[in-house]
Write a structure and sequence with these properties.
By secondary structure, the protein is mostly beta strands. Helix content is about 0%, strand content about 50%.
Length: about 525
């Protein structure tokens, strides 16, 4: 397969498979950034020396630009982020108040301001579409508040629930700082930390306030305070989370993992909920696979017939959904069994039916993954990386094989996937095959449909053949009728055709008695916008 770079988008890579089919990787992690030349290029998150404004270092090859260091102040701590490709200004920077870093160290995608306060480093890790800030407490101290001066250009910063959201001048979310948390060297986590935001005439102020004294007193150090800035965009996964039946009113929307667990008396049941962004309207899906990276699973066997991917029948929100208020479950869309089934590998769920099964009327709300009790799967548990997982290479992704929807397409009328003969881009999917004919024979007519897939109404629809393109001593005849078959070289269809409307006609092959060989021919369609 060869990548079609002209089809790149922020979260998408496309490869041409052949015969009109494309293979798309739709990621929850940005894959490309829009360069100043207007091309989508591969992301690089390496921190490099940079001289601009007051900054000394930066990352410019990401979905947003990030800058570090203040060369004009004795307080060298400064981090700035700028939206790429926006008209006018769209930026914000944060400066840790009253800090005096002893040095600034960069390594790969990391920039660390050392000893901002005694025993406190502030580390920034740049990844695809995300800036992770770690306030690292190397030892116990009395500092509980970390305040940042906020300077911005054409952006608005607000506190919404436990998160901080940054909007551009159009009112669209550009950066999202999720709920902060504390984590110690043993991996113990506390949410005893929150944001406080105050507005001033010249600068705003954002504070990270730690309230869990017991955690700070009893933890093994270092302790990290983790607020993360995420760039918003249209990824494959609109939202994902999990629910847990024994904690029926608990929301897990900020978790970095997704859990699927069978039903037993002691552990209850976990279901993973995933909702997808709509696929482009000009795609005809042939296959679709949800791929999840399994970061852990228990010792119980997960038998093949225990897997389900049930479509969700109503809207839900990852920040509010719980086991007790989750939508009702509909039909199972999983085809066969997922591959993988062990830890530290990708599991692949064939959910093609979610995208092209006409019986699923409410498919836009996503799916719920679960294990049934069949085959001893009562206690089976698998944990996957979510769209918030720190290692961005292991986040969920959607892999789709599709055809580009034709503008005026010929198909065989069966209504099944893969029934188009070609698209509007000179790609042939299958042939209108008349088989073997004896010289002097006329084939039986074959019915063909031409469908308007332009997205708008058309008129003056015509279908025709070019006689000069026909094989020698062989002619292709078209007719509006089967009986009687009235041959014409161009068919005209009266009236107008709305989007998705179609017309049918008949095709036959006529050979002369001295015809020596067959060949290929083309049928064309044209129409005018209404």
């Amino acid at each position: 397969m060869q990548e079609v770079k002209s089809m790149r988008k922020m979260f998408e890579k496309h490869h041409y498979v052949g015969a009109g089919e494309f293979y798309a990787e739709l990621s929850t992690t940005p894959l490309h950034y829009l360069s100043e030349s207007g091309e989508w290029k591969d992301i690089s998150t390496t921190v490099k020396d940079f001289r601009g404004w007051e900054y000394s270092k930066g990352v410019l090859s990401n979905t947003f630009k990030v800058y570090f260091g203040d060369t004009m102040s004795t307080n060298e701590h400064l981090v700035g982020i700028e939206k790429v490709g926006d008209e006018g200004e769209c930026w914000i920077n944060f400066k840790l108040k009253n800090s005096r870093p002893t040095e600034t160290v960069t390594e790969g995608s990391t920039c660390t301001f050392k000893n901002c306060y005694e025993g406190v480093d502030v580390e920034y890790v740049v990844s695809e579409g995300m800036l992770k800030e770690n306030i690292i407490l190397h030892k116990k101290n009395d500092r509980r508040v970390f305040s940042f001066t906020v300077k911005k250009g054409d952006t608005v910063i607000t506190k919404e629930g436990n998160a901080v959201v940054i909007y551009d001048r159009h009112g669209e979310v550009v950066w999202d700082m999720g709920e902060p948390y504390l984590i110690d060297s043993d991996g113990e986590v506390s949410y005893g930390v929150h944001y406080e935001l105050s507005y001033g005439q010249e600068y705003d102020e954002l504070s990270v306030v730690v309230t869990d004294e017991d955690f700070l007193m009893t933890s093994n150090y270092p302790v990290i305070i983790d607020p993360t800035v995420t760039m918003q965009g249209d990824s494959a996964i609109l939202q994902d989370t999990y629910v847990y039946s024994p904690s029926g009113n608990t929301n897990y929307g900020n978790s970095d993992s997704l859990v699927v667990q069978g039903l037993n008396n002691s552990a209850g049941r976990n279901r993973t909920l995933i909702q997808f962004n709509p696929l482009p309207s000009d795609w005809v899906v042939n296959e679709a696979h949800l791929e999840l990276f399994c970061i852990a699973r228990n010792q119980y066997s997960i038998v093949a017939n225990s897997h389900r991917a049930l479509h969700l029948t109503a809207p839900w929100n990852k920040n509010t959904v719980t086991h007790n208020n989750m939508p009702a479950l509909g039909d199972n869309v999983l085809l066969g069994n997922p591959t993988g089934l062990t830890a530290d590998v990708w599991w692949s769920y064939d959910i093609s039916n979610y995208f092209f099964n006409p019986t699923i009327k409410q498919k836009d709300h996503g799916i719920a993954l679960q294990f049934t009790g069949a085959g001893g799967a009562f206690a089976s548990t698998a944990t996957f990386a979510s769209s918030r997982y720190a290692d961005t290479s292991k986040r969920p992704r959607l892999v789709v094989k599709y055809l580009k929807k034709p503008v005026l397409g010929f198909h065989d009328g069966t209504g099944q996937i893969g029934t188009y003969y070609s698209d509007g881009y000179d790609n042939i999917f299958k042939l209108l095959d008349f088989g073997t004919l004896v010289a002097g024979q006329t084939s039986s007519p074959v019915r063909v449909f031409v469908k308007n897939l332009a997205g708008f109404d058309v008129t003056n629809l015509r279908v025709y053949v070019a006689p000069l393109e026909s094989p020698e001593k062989t002619s292709i005849e078209l007719s509006l009728f089967n009986s009687p078959f009235i041959p014409e070289t161009m068919l005209r269809f009266n009236g107008s055709y709305v989007d998705e409307a179609e017309a049918s006609f008949y095709v036959r092959i006529v050979t002369q008695e001295d015809a020596m060989a067959g060949g290929d021919f083309n049928i064309y369609a044209k129409a005018d916008p209404l």
